[in-house]
Amino acid sequence: MRNDFKEVFNLINNSKKICIAGHKSPDGDCIGSVMALYNFLKAMDKDLTVLLDGEIPFNFKAFVNEEVIAEKYQEEFDLMFILDCSDSKRLGKYEPAMKQANKTVVIDHHKTNEGFGDINIIDAEMSSTGELLYNLLKSSGMTLSKEIAQFIYIAILTDTGKFSYSSTTSKTHIIAADLINLGVNIAEIDNIVYNSKPANVMKAFIDCISSMELYYGNKFSLTSITKDILDKNKVKMGDVDGVAEFLRGINEVEVSCVLKEEDEFTKVSLRSKNKLDVSSISAKFGGGGHAKAAGFEIKDNVENIKKLLLKELKEYFK
Ligand SMILES: [Mn+2]
User: Fold this and answer.
1) Which CATH superfamily does the domain covering 3-194 fall into?
2) Which of 30, 112, 152, 296 could share a disulfide with 26, CB 3.0–4.6 Å?
3) CA separation for the pair 258, 248 (Å, rounded)
4) Fold for the domain defined by 199-317
5) Which pLDDT score, from 0 to 100, does residue 203 have?
6) Within this chain, domains 3-194 and 199-317 share the same CATH topology
7) Cα of 318 from ligand 1 centre, angstroms
8) DSSP summary character for residue 66
9) Distance from the CA of 217 to the center of ligand 1, in angstroms?
10) Residue 238 above 90 pLDDT?
11) Could you report the per-residue pLDDT of 187-217, keeping only the tens digit for each?
């Protein structure tokens, strides 16, 4: 077993109160990884606290028993796992929980992660935190339950864009094969995750798409998810997913962007098709992510951020 994996299992064996946290506005990789680890440690009879800042999107609710997600925490933790977070800020309102933990273990696959835990298991070659977590859990020699397998599958499926991004390797597929052998029903999961949009969510999605703008010879596509669109369709921000990926579907588009209008800030999601590394652009604005999927947030309104981005990207599309 890898030394860092060994260290993690030593910590688990010597800990009773364990916290598992993921990033704010949790996505499939975050939720899948957190819940897989939750089920793994539950079977070891640990006293667990799950912290996730933000709603579970509707298409993951069927898998998650939301009662296990803590509203607040008071206790000290022997050990805290931080999953799929490129930096501690990504924990959102639960960032201070790190101070309550005796030891912290960061498990992540973002290349911008500098390692902010006591133990850092970071591998940017991994398609997903789920894939990395699979390797960790599997190295214990314990059999993974169908439920754990299902959560890891959800993590990998969603973060690889259904096994289509370049981060998907033959190893990713071998892991998926093992997960299927453990009982994962891939068609059922696909329907729940991708084909279960309530009509109003689909309408909000279409509203976002139809207000798309194209710049720089159609190489840059941009739209925004505004509060107006959310209110009009009675949906939450976290429910409208995949807009940036959809806008990348245009032949000439190299980079797509979605601006999400939050209360006091704007959240920017960037998706790249080929060469342009959007994580380096995001890093300039205090964000991070992957070469082809990254983001950041700024305390300013949608219109100003749009201008800022157009200026920033101008040189790339000369
Ligand atoms: Mn991820």
Assistant:
1) inorganic pyrophosphatase (n-terminal core) (3.90.1640.10)
2) 30
3) 11
4) Diaminopimelate Epimerase; Chain A, domain 1 (3.10.310)
5) 98
6) no
7) 32
8) G
9) 31
10) no
11) 999 999 999 999 999 999 999 999 999 999 9
* Structure confidence by residue, pLDDT tens digits, 126-149: 999 999 999 999 999 999 999 999
pLDDT tens digits along 240-271: 999 999 999 999 999 999 999 999 999 999 99
What's the 248 CA to ligand 1 centre distance in angstroms? 19
Q: Which residue has the tokens 């000369």?
A: 318
Provide the terminal-to-terminal Cα distance of the chain, rounded to the nearest Å. Answer: 49
For the chain, domain boundaries = 3-194, 199-317
Residue 266 forms beta bridges with which residues?
Answer: 261, 298
Distance 84 CA to ligand 1 centre (A): 5
SS3 of 228-247: the string is HHHHHHCCCHHHCCCHHHHH
The pTM score is 0.92
Centre of ligand 1 from the C-alpha of residue 303, in Å: 28
